[in-house]
């Protein structure tokens, strides 16, 4: 994980702008505490804060092409970089950095290369000779990326909102799966898949063996690291599966094609929760079963409440679910950092791909089910991807998400949607459970979906609701539209978080960068039509799904 801040189309003197960009980059140094680099000339300034995961010795950025005409500032990991390097036998690579292959691809293919890469990324390239820049973001928006313009018209690209706040008068999210070239300044969608259409997948066969192999390959790919790594293990299905697969491959170094011993062969797993929480008990059972060195991180409700202000500053949102679940993750990340771990695998994405949220029980048919999974994936960059990335990056840790691996998604999203549906015989994510039931404890393989913010301990959310009921008056909520005309808070919890967000990010431009949508158990607004009981509710907890969750309200 790294951080970038770039200034293009410069409208002021570079000697004035360069120190400003350095200060902007300093605000996101938590993302890359290992090295700071900068390139500037009279037309651009490109700053980089590095978290060294691959090639710590020589991979510092910005990176240059051999002729020094192309400059790259990148935040990301290119999992297939070794295979891509082999396609350029005549290219004089300067480092062992996985990101350097981006320069070779751009030099060879121009803008039409992004889909060649399997990875997570947000990057900017500058062509000195042509005075052109090129910006791209990964397929799902796993890596955050923002753009903005200051009052003079200078154009900025940054990994986090806080780098642009106070500088830019207009800020927006760079859309996932897109690139932009300065030749026309337009967003171009590079990530296009036939499986977004139900008719393209409705008659497909479902192979559980193929799903299993594809996910094992994704985890194996993503163990690429020259530094100590671990796994996040909540005790739910998704993190248990990714942890079990990681344990299967952790003994060998994947950069050697598994021919030499791993540099850090002991796999460490981490779980977080309140004393006695459902997640801690389930995670311990999985860790004992698969044989990881397991660490339980327990927090008190007061510690969680005390952290919320810092959490909102780091994750840059006022979305209720994201804050509820980011808080324990943020606390856990600090402990992980203290143990020298710099990268972790996490289970995000499975619920969107396989319809794991409990409201999917209400899907009326396979078409609606599939179309909702596509909608959820389209929005994921504003929710779970944001949480997983920024909660960890706050403490200089990189999060990787194998379920959102580009190649795995092409397998999982092309299986027949009717085989993902929940009925009397099959519970949510049945395909994943069946594929990996031989690798994890039976009680976990068939454990009901528990949203992370619920699983750390039900009293966490219950206490948050009590707190905001005391902190926000009925009158404040009734008049919220005057204080917050943009994305007016719909309830007291949202109002409370919004007031903290406003303290960190007071501009309207920042407020507009956050999504707002009615939801039940993390549904999209569209899916509220599935059940009459959903229509007057707005509660993102899984316990809001009556007659489905075992501990429903």
- Helices and strands: which structural class? alpha+beta
What is the average of the pLDDT values?
Answer: 93
From the N-terminal CA to the C-terminal CA, the straight-line distance is 39 Å
Give the percentage of residues in beta strands. 15-25%
Strand order of the largest sheet: 2-3-1-9-8-10
Please tell me what the overall shape is: globular
Main beta sheet: strand number and arrangement? Answer: 6 strands, antiparallel
Number of helices: 20
Query: What ranges have pLDDT less than 50 throughout 5 or more consecutive residues?
Result: none
Radius of gyration, in angstroms, nearest whole number: 23 Å
How many strand segments? Answer: 17
Molecular structure report:
- With 553 residues, the chain is α+β, with helices and mostly antiparallel strands.
- 35% of the residues lie in helices and 16% in strands.
- The chain is built from 20 helices and 17 strands.
- The protein has helices at 14-26, 81-85, 100-109, 208-222, 237-249, 278-290, 301-315, 320-338, 350-354, 366-379, 384-393, 406-412, 430-436, 442-445, 452-455, 458-471, 474-478, 480-483, 492-504, 508-511, and strands at residues 3-8, 35-40, 45-50, 63-64, 70-78, 119-127, 132-137, 146-150, 155-158, 168-173, 178-181, 187-189, 229-232, 268-273, 293-298, 343-345, 398-400.
- The strands form 3 sheets. The protein has a 6-stranded antiparallel sheet with strand order 2-3-1-9-8-10, with helices on one face.
- Helix 4 (208-222) packs across helix 5 and helix 4 crosses helix 13 (430-436).
- The two termini are 39 Å apart.
- The model has no long low-confidence stretch (mean pLDDT 93).
């Amino acid at each position: 994980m790294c951080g970038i801040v770039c200034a293009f189309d410069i409208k002021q003197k570079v000697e004035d702008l360069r120190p400003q960009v350095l200060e902007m980059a300093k605000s996101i140094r938590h993302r890359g505490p290992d090295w700071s680099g900068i390139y500037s000339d009279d037309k651009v300034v490109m700053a980089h804060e590095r978290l060294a995961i691959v090639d710590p010795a020589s991979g510092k950025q910005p990176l240059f092409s051999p002729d020094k005409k192309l400059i790259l500032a990148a935040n990301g990991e290119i999992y297939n970089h070794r295979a891509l390097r082999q396609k350029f036998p005549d290219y004089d690579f300067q480092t062992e950095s996985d990101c350097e292959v981006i320069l070779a691809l751009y030099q060879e293919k121009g803008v039409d290369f992004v889909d060649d890469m399997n990875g997570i990324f947000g990057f900017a390239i500058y062509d000195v000779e042509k005075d052109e820049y090129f910006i791209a973001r990964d397929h799902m928006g796993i890596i955050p990326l923002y753009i903005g313009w200051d009052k003079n018209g200078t154009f900025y690209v940054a990994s986090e909102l806080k780098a642009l706040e106070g500088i830019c008068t207009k800020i927006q999210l760079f859309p996932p799966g897109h690139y932009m070239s300065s030749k026309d300044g337009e967003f171009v969608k590079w990530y296009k898949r036939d499986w977004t259409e139900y008719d393209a997948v409705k008659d497909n066969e479902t192979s559980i063996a193929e799903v299993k192999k594809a996910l094992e390959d994704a985890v194996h790919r993503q163990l690429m690291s020259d530094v100590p790594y671990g796994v996040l293990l909540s005790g739910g299905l998704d993190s248990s599966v990714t942890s079990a697969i990681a344990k299967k491959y952790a003994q060998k170094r994947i950069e050697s094609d598994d021919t030499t011993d791993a540099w850090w062969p002991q796999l460490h797993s981490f779980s977080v929760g309140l004393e006695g929480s459902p997640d801690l008990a389930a995670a311990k059972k999985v860790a004992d079963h698969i044989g990881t060195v397991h660490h339980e991180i327990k927090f008190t409700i007061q510690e969680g409440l005390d952290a919320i202000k810092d959490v909102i500053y780091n994750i840059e949102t006022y979305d209720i679910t994201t804050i509820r679940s980011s808080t324990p993750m943020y606390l856990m990340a600090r402990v992980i950092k203290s143990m020298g771990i710099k990268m972790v695998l996490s289970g995000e994405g499975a619920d969107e791909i396989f319809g794991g949220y409990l409201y999917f029980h209400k899907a009326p048919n396979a078409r609606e089910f599939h179309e909702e999974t596509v909608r959820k994936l389209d929005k994921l960059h504003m929710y779970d991807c944001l949480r997983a990335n920024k909660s960890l990056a706050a403490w200089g840790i990189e999060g990787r998400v194998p379920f959102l691996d580009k190649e795995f998604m092409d397998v999982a999203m092309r299986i027949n949607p009717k085989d993902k549906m929940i009925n009397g015989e099959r519970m949510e994510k049945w395909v994943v459970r069946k594929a990996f039931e031989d690798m994890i404890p039976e009680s976990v393989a068939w454990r009901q979906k528990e949203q992370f913010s619920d699983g750390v301990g039900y009293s966490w959310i219950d206490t948050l609701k009590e707190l905001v009921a005391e902190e926000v008056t009925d009158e404040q909520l009734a008049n919220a539209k005057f204080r917050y005309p943009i994305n007016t808070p719909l309830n007291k919890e949202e109002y409370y978080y919004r007031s903290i967000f406003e303290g960190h990010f007071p501009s309207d431009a920042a407020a507009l960068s956050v999504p707002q949508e009615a939801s039940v158990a993390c549904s999209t607004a569209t899916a509220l039509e599935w059940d009459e009981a959903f229509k007057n509710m707005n509660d993102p907890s899984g316990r809001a799904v009556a007659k489905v969750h075992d501990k429903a309200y």
